[in-house]
Design a protein that fits this description.
Layout (H helix, E strand, L loop, with lengths): L4 H19 L6 H13 L2 H15 L16 H33 L4 H18 L18 H4 L2 H28 L5 H25 L9 E8 L10 H21 L3 E9 L12 E10 L2 E9 L8 E4 L35 E2 L6 E5 L6 H9 L5 E5 L6 H18 L3 E5 L5 E3 L5 E4 L6 E8 L6 H5 L2 H21 L1
Helix pairs in contact: 1-2, 1-3, 2-7, 3-4, 4-5, 5-7, 5-13, 7-8, 7-11, 10-11
């Protein structure tokens, strides 16, 4: 039996990692995640690294849908191997991060409560920091959605990083209970009852917070928005026929917005090419994803067209660029500008606030939706609602489900209505309680008229950011230091 233990250890860690990847959105099943996290606490750094790699490979398998890449100049025989390398590289990075985290836990003593609190806080803070960099997309902080909106309601105070730490702490408590049960110790069922009671109370608290964010009937500040989902296949976007189809759909949406008395028309990421103007000078403001040149650099942006104007008068540029897709390290010295058909794109300013004359809006372009801290900062600076502009074609429904879950989480964190405009989906409206109010069917060309409320209040997370996590880490570190002093 002793000789077989390493095999069971590694296979158990791999299986738990696969379950963790499945527990993340688009499913969003926290109980399954808590069970899948038990081996991370119970086993050593090596199995934990395998767990992390397996979880990311399952949750990020949509990367394989990049193939084929011949439409951006990658030879077809190299396309699938390149996609597999990209996918596998993310798994390796995840394995290194989780393994390093578990090594720290090993040295501090995983059975200690202070270690559990400190390690959980560090994991949560790491997710917040990684969401500002190029390699992070989705983590434990989003696991509650869409399946457990009550638990996700706690994000109003602790954000996605706090939710990640909470998942880890519940899993640690579950591990300690299973260990005590296996050893037939006294008080096991009392501990299980306490764990279950805490879970119920957390859900009750989160649900109560969501009820406080329910839309207010008769609110004065309302905005009528028309969302255009053009459904132009990315691999055919630059063909003459698809460009003409886009112009017809845009012109029709402008006319519909005028006829319906909309305040704003919204188009998805990359809808307009560099220098492209609107078909008509309609008397409706337009926010459109597109490209522009600034100081000789190409930017992916959300362009604002004032009523009656065909040229953009304002823009907010994408700050968090897709690695290898829009930006590669040392790209200025290489002949390859990345996997984007438009070539290399330059970084915009970090702020996600677009200060429109009619009221500021927080803007997330593509996978900037993963950075909750940036959108919370935009609401602190005056954003009354959120706009997510994306082009997720040709990726599968799995990625669209993850994007939708992140949009729900951002709405809950900030207490703001969120409008998502995507090329093939998800185009939808999310209220401040995280409920999806309206949506368009995936892959179809259509428009979606929505009405939202412009808000001015702030949630606890918008006010304090990661302060709860920092206090948890500081308190746990102080307890650990005090314990070491006593032992000395």
């Amino acid at each position: 039996m002793a000789g077989n233990r390493p095999l069971w250890t590694w296979s158990g860690a791999a299986a738990a990692g696969l379950l963790a990847g499945l527990a993340l959105p688009p499913w969003g099943c926290p109980p399954l995640l808590w069970l899948a996290l038990v081996p991370v606490w119970a086993l050593g750094p090596g199995p934990a690294a395998l767990w992390g790699g397996a979880a990311v490979l399952v949750s990020h398998r949509w990367l394989l849908w990049l193939h084929p890449l011949d439409w951006v100049g990658v030879p077809l025989p190299l396309s699938l191997p390149l996609c597999v390398v990209l996918w596998g590289s993310l798994g390796v990075v995840a394995a290194a991060l989780v393994g390093g985290w578990r090594l720290l836990v090993q040295r501090l003593g995983p059975e200690r409560r202070s270690t559990a609190c400190l390690a959980a806080a560090l994991w949560g803070l790491a997710e917040v920091v990684l969401a500002k960099g190029p390699l992070f997309w989705i983590g434990l902080g989003s696991a509650a959605l869409p399946g457990d909106r009550a638990l996700a309601g706690l994000a109003q105070w602790i954000g996605a990083g706090g939710l990640a730490a909470l998942q880890l702490l519940l899993a640690w408590w579950l591990w300690r209970w299973l260990t005590a049960w296996a050893a037939q110790r006294s008080g096991v069922w009392r501990s299980a009852s306490a764990w279950l009671l805490v879970v119920v109370l957390l859900h009750a608290w989160g649900w109560r917070l969501l009820q406080l964010q329910e839309p207010v009937a008769g609110a004065a500040s309302r905005l009528n928005v028309l969302v255009l989902q053009p459904a132009i296949p990315t691999r055919e976007k630059f063909s003459w026929s698809q460009q003409q189809a886009l112009l017809r759909r845009l012109a029709g949406a402008q006319l519909q917005a005028e006829q319906q008395g909309a305040d704003l028309l919204v188009l998805p990421e990359g809808a307009l090419a560099v220098g492209q103007t609107l078909p008509h000078a309609a008397e409706v403001e337009v926010l459109s994803g597109g490209f522009r040149e600034m100081d000789g650099e190409l930017r992916s942006s959300v362009l604002r067209f004032a009523p009656g104007e065909q040229e953009p008068v304002q823009a907010i540029d994408k700050h968090r660029l897709v690695p290898l897709g829009e930006w590669i390290p040392g790209g200025s010295w290489l002949s390859w500008a990345g996997l984007s058909a438009v070539g290399g794109v330059s970084f915009g300013e970090p702020s996600r606030l677009l200060a429109r004359p009619a009221g500021a809006v927080g803007v997330a372009i593509c996978y900037e939706i993963a950075d909750g801290a940036a959108l919370a900062a935009a609401t602190r600076d005056g954003a009354g609602w959120l706009l997510a502009s994306a082009n997720l074609d040709p990726y599968p429904p799995q990625l669209q489900g993850q994007f939708e879950a992140l949009a729900q989480l951002r709405a809950i964190e900030t207490g703001r209505w969120l409008v998502s405009a995507a090329n093939t989906g998800p185009s939808l409206l999310v209220d401040p309680s995280g409920a999806v109010r309206q949506r368009l069917s995936t892959g179809m060309a259509a428009t979606l008229p929505v009405q939202l409320q412009v808000r001015v209040g702030r949630t606890g997370y918008s006010r304090t950011g990661e302060l709860p996590l920092l206090l948890l880490a500081a308190g746990a570190a102080a307890l650990r230091l005090r314990s070491r002093v006593r032992q000395s």
